[in-house]
Structure prediction request, 93 residues.
Amino acid sequence: MGGDLAHEPIQLRTPMDVLPEAKAIMEQHGCLVEDGCVTLPAGSTRTLYEQYLQTTTLWYEIVLPDHFRMLEAHEWSRKLSILYLSSEAQSAP
Prediction:
């Protein structure tokens, strides 16, 4: 299944606290990280990740224009997204 290419930035409602390390990594890849919101850059894709069971949480693979990947757990009932960065990104200098 192909992802939807976003010609406009995508805004995701997130928890208020984002780890400083995660914020720095996302900002290096063109994301705007604010309290309670992450804006993905135009040209990002967000694809339903079918390998996970879709229940009250929908799982998406996000690919930014520079090919950086994240996994999103979207709780549709609360309209809240939790973003998971790859372990390689977290260990990068």
